# Entry
Amino acid sequence: MDDVIKKCRVLAVQRFKAGESPESICASLGKSKFWLYKWVKRHSEDDPLWFEDRSRKPLSTPHRIPVEIEEIVKLVRLNLYNQDLFCGAQAILWELEDLGVRPLPSLRTINRILKRNDLTHRRTGKYEPKGTAYPKLPALLPNQTHQMDLVGPCYLTGPIRFYGLNVIDTTTARCGLYTSLSKSGQDVLNGTWAIWSRLGIPNNLQVDNAMSFLGSPRYPRALSQFVRLCLHHDVEAWFVPMAEPWRNGIVEQFNDHYQQKFLGKVMMTSADELRAGTMAFEQRHNSSYRYSKLGGKTPIKALSASKATLRFPNPENNPQQQLKKPEVGRYHLVRLIRSDLKLNILGELFPVPPEVKLEYVVATIDVKEQKLKLYLGKTQIDEFGYELR
# Structure
């Protein structure tokens, strides 16, 4: 059918060039003069494929939101979803305002982004591919592995809104808590530092992909202040797979316990009351709550029985200023490779071999070597140059 249409266009132009009247040509072909003159004009443009259909897609879309803003909207939506919070366009807009994102997209734009990426409906259940091994961190000694989560916003009586930084030592079940009125990068640094000062510094710190931890897709190769703090103290940060909050299950379970036993019971009317109450709950939990996995011991008694030596931060190195880029160290991102065979690191895509399809891989970023190394289990399967900014 397409060939017949193209031959009709060629024949019409040939007859016109031979001197036949437009009326006669159009009457015989059942076409309008506008149609005829359109193809005559195309023929005069010296295009060898002038008789082919051309795309009607505009050459540019000047009003489309920048790609980096679209990536931020998707990441904010994912973080809200992982915390079981409202994750519609309005909730995303409030989060973007809190983060100071500019240019700030409109509600209509956010809705278009969600629809374009098929994120207009909340997913149910967990996707657990069969036969794939998930890399687990060691939890034999105190402070081998901490799990951390940033929860909120939560609300006190009245308009007071706050965020909580919750940490669990996966071996002893000791908790560390910190509350703040925002979730800025500096607040996360202050909270991490304060908790390390009480619990000690871990070897591994597992977190989700919140921008407060991993950084922004706008600057995919810029080390976040949180990652820099970890690297400066020989801590290896581990980022769980996107949209899989249960991988941080120990601290997620503790969040529910914290809500039921403290936030949902104790009446507080000021930020000072909240901080004092939070510290009291942390102390009570660590010294009084008994765990079956610890043989009935409390977290403090489990720590004492281990006779482990803990590392603590130097008070003189309190991170109140911009942290310098570390020269050495590494951090890790656990990712599930989908059928497109792409590794997504803050919106930057890396091709991976077919044998890792539907497998969990570890993307290790080596700061000294400026490389991204891809592991399946303990085997390195690929390597990419990764120059950090």
